[in-house]
Amino acid sequence: MSRRAERTPWLTALALPGAIWLAALVALPALATALISLASRGPFGEPVPPWGLHNYALLLTDPLFARVLTRSLLLGAGTTLLCALVGYPLAFHIAASRRQTLWLLAITIPFFVNFLIRVYAWMLLLQKEGLVNAAAALLGAGPFALLPSALAVWVATVYTFLPFFVLPVYAVVERIDWTLRDAALDLGAPPLRAFTAAVLPQTLPGLAAGAALVFVPAAGTFVIADLLGGGKITLIGNLIQLQFGAAQHWPLGAAASTVLMALALLGLAVCLRAFGAREGGR
Amino acid sequence: MRRLLALHAWAAIAFLWLPMVAVALLSFSESRYGLRLEGFTLRWYANLAADARLAEYLRNTLVVALASTALATALGTLLALALARQRFRLRAALEGLLYLPLVVPDVVLGIALLILFTLLREWLGGPQLSLLTVTLGHTAFQLSYVTLVVRARLSLLDPALEEAARDLGATPWQAFAHVTLPLLAPGIGAGALLALSLSLDDFVITFFTAGSGSTTLPLYLYSSLKLGVRPEIHALSTLLMGSTILALLIGYLHARKRP
Amino acid sequence: MAEASRGASAALDLRGICRRYGDQVVLDGVDLEVLEGEFFSLLGPSGCGKTTLLRIIAGLEAPDEGRVFLAGRDMTHTPPHLRPVNTVFQSYALFPHLTVAGNVAFGLRMRRLPKREIRERVDAALDLVGLRGLAERRPHQLSGGQRQRVALARALVNEPRVLLLDEPLSALDLALRRELRLELVRLQERLGLTCLFVTHDQEEALVLSDRLAVMERGRIRQVGSPEAVYERPISPFVARFIGEANLIPGECRGDGRALTPLGELEFPAGAAPKSSGPLWLAIRPEKLRLFRTEPAQPNRVQARVEGIVYTGSENRYLLDAAGIRLLAETLNHDSEEPGHEEFAAGETLWVVLPPERLVVLADEPPG
Fold first, then answer.
1. Any domain includes A236
2. pTM of the model
3. Is B149 on the interface with A (CB under 8 A)?
């Protein structure tokens, strides 16, 4: 006898303030961005008529934009993959550990430490006279020119997003039904096969959540590339920020931003379709 | 296999912690650019204390954090209650809107808010970019986190408890006030803490929604970082890290005390 | 039920209750009357609608059709907090943030009774269930049986006109269940409670009830005293659900005779509703009589012992008679007296189905 949620008007009314808030501060800004992306650039970078798809046409035909977008998506995908390689086994270790809360604290503290400070830490370590080169010198190597570099951007991006990946994966690993693996082993599956057949599928929702929280946000950061990549337009985030800063081309920036938003929504839709239906009940 | 897993875990923790530890250690170093460990000094902390602007930035940061957290917690709790218990039209659209700030890069939300506030000002005489717009901007992403955390807690509540209260003679409001709310309190608290720390931490949204006179600590930190490495920034970073760790430890110990 | 018995003495009266979830019919026209001071059980397999019915009585769910009368008043649309009933939930639903005393006091506090009265009544209720010493404990510090008692005290303290019990013993182990069952009966008699008890455990229902109703697929199939329902089930479903029954299909052949796979069997004259057509003959396992040599009694058939289960005081024989499986139960007398012999697996014996013990059931579609 399942209990079904019933319609009670006064309970639905509770959603109203929050819904209005989200509409005004999330939906409306998103629509405004899409609207501006159709405008042309005025003398001070402000949006003016004529309206059209010319900004998107510019983005699509400009080889620079294609390179920037590819590089950004590559960074997003690579970061997701590296976070998975590091974070997935880590989540299992935490779930199996007797000092679970301490391990979790060790992951959540870096998660909560100011993002800029964590990027700053790498700025510091990777300086020419910094500790990394000092350590390399002890081994008789270097010094290396580590800053600014693409490597620095990659390291700091993985560093920044790792906790975002570990926490959702941990949440599902903790609830794994291990009797399924035991059953697989009992039925004669070799350990690796037992893992891929009985354990891996149970962790998929966590992997998907981790990927959703890492992929697009990592592809879209501009601060890391700004501070560690040497100020050139390297990523799509930088490109967008530049249009609203020095370059003063809001419509173009809005168009690039709309593309990024569309990619994020696409990813969200895929995730919700694959794993959200179960959660929603019925 | 077990061993390998443990080794991997320790290596990952070292990767996460060593850079932060390095910043903290170097903040006490006498080295001129703070890049090497040489001697021990509190000079950089003293320099910080002498900077009067920092007090203002700190005040701005706290005003924004407290105001936005209060708003987001109230709205998010109500939204979670409605979403957890009700089926209604537009529910799917609302869910999508909730997830949007979580999956969209900060820069996208930041410039979207900038465009909105600019258009409002140009067309409807809305407010200048200020602490108000920063606060509103912060609620835009905090609301999602609070709602999801409170809803997760709500989904763990046995619906039979509220029914039992009603069966024992409680009006719908009494059942909510005497049963649901006390049981939900830890979830609401967790959501509020998360929102608070996200606001204190936020740089990108603030960057796009702040005007002159609404500089926060992260904004100041960023402009300093653009200028390069300075030992005073090591010290400031260490102080901020310290307060984060302290807050989390207090939260952890508090949570452990309760059954 | 005669119309005259309705009215003043009915604590609870349900008329034509229907409930649908989408196109799934959960309750299909339920009429039910529970008398003042009666212990009434609703018995049925899971999914038969009994819990939904209880929730409708408590006001936690609304019927699509029908009316709910409590103590003579139509309360079909009264919200749960204004109904003079209280429920002991299957999961107990104790409030984890309140102490035992806080849980028991909850209903009184909601009614804003004076503090002193609340304290006195909570103490009395805790005394009643023997938990006085645990008043300051939290639910998670209690054993299953103690939680059950708290749930009971929490409901009783409000002096409900009808106490609703939703499988309150199902989460406990057998020994504790038996103990609490007796306690429940003692409390009910002492306080003169009116109880509506929902269960899928037929033994529980038989032991506890003044009357019981058997439910199946959203309908009440039979109402009566435990003895009446056990001895005279009206359908194969009821016969099977209450206790064990041997069911033999047959074809009515005039008065008191039926043709079955076991041959022609006699049954009491006038027991069959019609003088021809299909019917079922039911007989309880303990009513079968077994003989080594052919007895001179009607309704005897030959059967083979397929299996034996010793349960201590009884022997249970699984028999095969002309392809029909029969279950027979005999007391363990340890004697060779005819009718009380013991048999071994594989042995052939004579079974007698005493005509006066056969119950004639109308044919019903398999379900």
1. yes
2. 0.78
3. no
Cβ of residue B75 closer than 8 Å to a chain C Cβ: no
Question: Residue B70 forms beta bridges with which residues?
Answer: none
Assign residue A253 the CATH number of its domain: 1.10.3720.10
Whose tokens are 């005279």? That residue is: C232
What is the span of the domain harbouring residue A217? 64-113+150-281
Query: Which CATH class, in words, describes the domain spanning B51-257?
Result: mainly alpha
Please name the amino acid found at residue C49.
G
What is the pLDDT, as a whole number, of residue B179?
A: 94
Q: Residue C1: exposed, middle, or buried by beta-carbon count in 10 A (0-12, 13-18, 19+)?
A: exposed
- Cis peptide, bond prior to residue A148, ω within 30 of zero: yes
Q: Is C89 on the interface with B (CB under 8 A)?
A: yes
Which residues of C are less than 8 Å from B166 in CB distance?
59-60, 79-81
Compute the half-sphere exposure of residue B190: CA atoms within 13 Å on the CB side of its CA: 17
Tokens of B78: 């109500």
pLDDT in tens, B168-206: 999 988 999 999 999 999 889 989 988 998 898 899 999
- Does residue B46 sit at the A interface (CB-CB below 8 Å)? no
Chains near C (3 or more Cβ pairs under 8 Å)? A, B
Contact C60 B161 (CB under 8 A): no
How would DSSP label each residue in C1-64?
--GGGSSTTEEEEEEEEEEEETTEEEEEEEEEEEETT-EEEEE--TTSSHHHHHHHHHTSS--S
In this structure, which amino acid lies at residue A239? L
The answer to whether A194 and A241 have CB atoms below 8 angstroms apart is no
Tell me how far CA of residue C175 lies from CA of B46, C145, C169, C170, C206, in angstroms.
73, 11, 11, 12, 17
Q: Which residues of B174-186 are buried (b: 16+ CB within 10 A; e: fewer)?
A: bbbebbbeebbee
Q: Chain C partners of B167 at a C-beta cutoff of 8 Å?
A: 58-60, 80-81, 85-87
Residue of A163, A14, A146 whose CA lies nearest to A87: A163
Is A255 part of any domain? yes
Structure tokens at A77: 């995908």
Determine the pLDDT at residue C4.
Answer: 40
Residue of A nearest to C60 (CA): A3
Give, for B96, the enclosing helix (H) or strand (E). helix B91-103
| Cα–Cα distance, C117 to C124 (Å, whole number) | 11
- Nearest CA distance, C76 vs chain B (angstrom): 15
| Cβ count within 10 A of residue B119 | 17
Is there a domain that residue A219 lies in? yes
Each residue's pLDDT tens digit, A173-231? 888 888 888 888 888 888 888 888 888 888 888 888 888 888 888 988 888 988 888 76
Number of folded domains that form chain A: 1
Which residues of chain B fall below pLDDT 50? Answer: 259
Give the ipTM of the model, two decimals please: 0.84
